Amino acid sequence: MEIDPGVLEGIGAAGGALMVVWAIVGILAGIACLIIAIWVGFDAANRRQPGFLWFLLTLLVLPVGLTAWLLARVYLTGPAPQTDA
């Protein structure tokens, strides 16, 4: 039993398209993680916490860092300091 070469080319094209989709999803997820980590770092710095350390924690371990920061910003620091603009 032989497989038609056209079928094999179709399978290869579908696999290539799937790989491109996963690459795009991975890039978008990486950008989203970076944006969230930057936000955590700036928010921590605005609340007089070590912003770079919070940024690193969130960037390296996103679910743990983000959860820890969201809990810490409520229970440890209270509301953000008000600035008179």
Structural overview:
The chain is an all-alpha fold. 78% of the residues lie in helices and 0% in strands. The chain contains three helices and no strands. The chain has helices spanning 5-46, 51-60, 62-75. The longest helix has 42 residues, at 5-46. The termini are far apart.
Jot down its keywords.
85 residues; mainly alpha; 0% strand; rod-shaped
Please outline the helices and strands.
Elements: H1 5-46, H2 51-60, H3 62-75
Can you summarize the main beta sheet?
Answer: none
Percent helix among the residues? over 70%
Distance separating the two termini: 78 Å
- Listing every helix as H and every strand as E from the N terminus to the C terminus, the arrangement reads HHH
Q: Report strand %.
A: under 5%
According to DSSP, the number of beta strands is: 0
Radius of gyration: 22 Å
Structural class: mainly alpha
Mean of all residue-level pLDDT scores: 83
**Uncertain regions spanning at least 5 consecutive residues:** none
Can you count the helices? 3
Query: In one word, what is the shape?
Result: rod-shaped
